[in-house]
Amino acid sequence: MLNAENIRGQLGTKWAARNLIFKEVTESTNDDAKVLGEEGAPHGTLVVSDVQTSGRGSRGRSWETPGGSNIAMSLLIRPTATPDKVSVLTLIMGLSIAQGVEDLFAMNEDIADFPQIKWPNDVVIAGKKICGILTELHMNNDNTINNVVIGVGINANMTSFPEEIEKIAGSIYTQTGFKVDRASVVAACMKRFEENYEKYERTYDLSLLKEEYEERLINRDRTVKILDPAGEYEAVALGIGNDGALKVRVSDGSIVDINAGEVSVRGLYGYV
Q: What are phi and psi of 84, to 5 degrees?
């Protein structure tokens, strides 16, 4: 059961989610975390809700969080980095979710498909997206960072999906055949994020996390379609740079960096 007591009982962190706010229903955990940030809530504050009625995904899309089956959560952090170094936090959360879910199934020999990452931060199991992440940066008037809110929606035990996303969306349950304790998922992912964030703080880039990320990169060494506003083209995904950019080899053999804020990447024949 997803509640504050069960989450706290399984937390193995020093600071991530130690200030835990649980809501049965909310409009948006990102909005809740933003307000808490303005009120001075500490680094590592986590807002979790069973039902989210107005969740936001990337590029203005909505994110459905029905009761009893999914996880909506937003982590408030207060980076000491400069604003140009925070975009990688979205990738770090994606890696943390993939690792956390993998940890829950590590001893289960019946699991054939472990989580992978579709660059930059979609967590995928057996070709279906099970997690979406939306990061929002909140600045002070002097152009320093007040806080960063990383919103996470995880399809945990959901079994049916809206028609417009059913071809790409899945849940941990639909993709593995196993229902999960949602509180365990939250705790496992927060433990991984705390570990990864502390590595990030040493360099303010992905250099200490790049290998772990690339091991799970579903696009790696595959031909992908780059959906650039200037025109679509095909390239081979090679991996990521320390700044989180996707490195691809284009038709003339040169290697270029793709930045997530500018373009999207798709598989040649579908989502991945």
A: -75, -5
What is the model's pTM?
Answer: 0.94
Integer Cα distance of 199 and 211 in angstroms: 13
Least confident of 25-29, 152-156, 265-269: 265-269
In this structure, the chain runs to a length of: 272
Question: Which two structure tokens, joined as six digits, stand for 128?
Answer: 């279906």
Neighbours of 112 (CB within 10 A): 10
